[in-house]
Amino acid sequence: MHHIENKSDGRQHNVIPFIPDGEFYFTKGVEAFQKRKFDSSIKWLVKAVEMTPKDNLYKCQLSIIYTEVGSYHEANQLLTKVLQSSDGQYTDCYYLLANNYAHLGLLNDAKKYAKSYLDKEPDGDFCDEAEQLLELIDFDEDENNDWDLEEEDELLIYQETIFYHMDNMEWDKAIPLLEEMMTLFPEHKLTKHDYTHALFFSGYKDDAVEMELDILNDQPDSLHSHVNLAVFFYELGRIQEYERHIKGLLNVYPMHEQQKLRIAVTLARTGVYHEAYARFCKLSKSIVKNHLSYYKWYSVTAYKLGEPSKSLSLWEEGCKKHPNLSQEEGPWNV
């Protein structure tokens, strides 16, 4: 108990301290959220969850704000905990998970949770949204599966050849093939991203940025657009724009190893070494060892973080598998 002495009359007054509870922090968090002060809202709601860990409503509200700021991984961790602790009673979590997985590009998981939501809540608040999400996923799958075997073989040959030229930074050889591929396989979306990447590093920087921004405008959740634009803006010294795109990538954890590698390389080449190192360590080497960029940027990251022996080992191994790497001056000069 605190005591404050009244100097004027010498009397003492007992002051009952205000001890905030979870509801107080939750209310403050919701108020901040309504004002779109997301950083403040997250701080208040994290405190609310800490104060009242069994209140699943607080966790759900916090997950919604994480989704709003693009922290899909953190949102999903909270929602999964809610489902586990409530035996699936918080059914809205199924839709919220589906939405987050769709943003992350994990469409199988998104589909699974959207169907679970509709099974459990056929007349729920998110029915329309869940059905629209399933329609989008089915449309995307139909597009991607609309190939015959002959087309697949031809596509594979193009992809393998372009992959080699891109990995070895042979832009003059990659660009004509990419242009052919965009004509022959217009529905293959990754080609455009490879094309803008090759354009940028061939010196057509403004064209590459403009083209990638156009793609992002049509596909706001495109992982490949955010990867490319993070690199482009970093190289151009437009740091505020770079930070907007790299911030989104920090919260994305793809399922496929090639996508994981793209994010790790992007983090490394833009100086986010600690996060890049964590990503490189989790990669399946047997899958990504055919990428020169794996050895190069993993080696650079290790060197920048004070691990010269590991850096040199990676560089030497990379040179054996990818002779073109030996033409570069080493991780200490990157």
Automatic annotation (TrEMBL):
Task: Please provide an example of a Pfam family that matches this protein in its UniProt record.
Answer: TPR_8
Q: Give the source species.
A: Virgibacillus subterraneus
Domain of life where this protein originates: Bacteria
What is the protein name given in its UniProt record?
A: Tetratricopeptide repeat-containing protein
